Here is the input.
Amino acid sequence: MKSIHLQLFSICLFILLISSCKKEAGSGGTSFIKGKVYAKYYDKIFYAVKDSAYAPDVDVYIIYGDQSTYDDHQKTTYDGSYEFKYLRNGSYKIYAYSQDTTGHYSFQVNIYSPLLPVIKNVDITKKKQTVEVSDINVILK
Here is the structure.
């Protein structure tokens, strides 16, 4: 009889500990983040804008919480849309890379075509929430 009570107590304690753990930002939830990437297309010397439109096939990245590297990425669809699904409550950073038209950015990826991150901060505050991010505006050649 004592063994059954001990097992029940252990199970109850285990359930209490699991339910009291705070889950961090990341996958495994019921919320969504979605938005679009808008691009201005310049000539090769960044002198004139040739075109502007919502950009297909651009990589969009997401960082969960205060991580230092990206956790996931998506390519935009034909109309510049992206969506990150099944996220938990928390803070996120969404970003895409844009060409640096000045060439003076201190963290140059490539001296001939340096890239700059265009970052949007997003908070999910409740379950089953869909957060629409304002357009990520990038410059492309």
Q: What stands out?
A: Residues 2-20 form the longest helix (19 residues). The beta strands are 27-42, 49-54, 59-64, 72-75, 81-87, 90-99, 115-124, 130-132, 136-140.
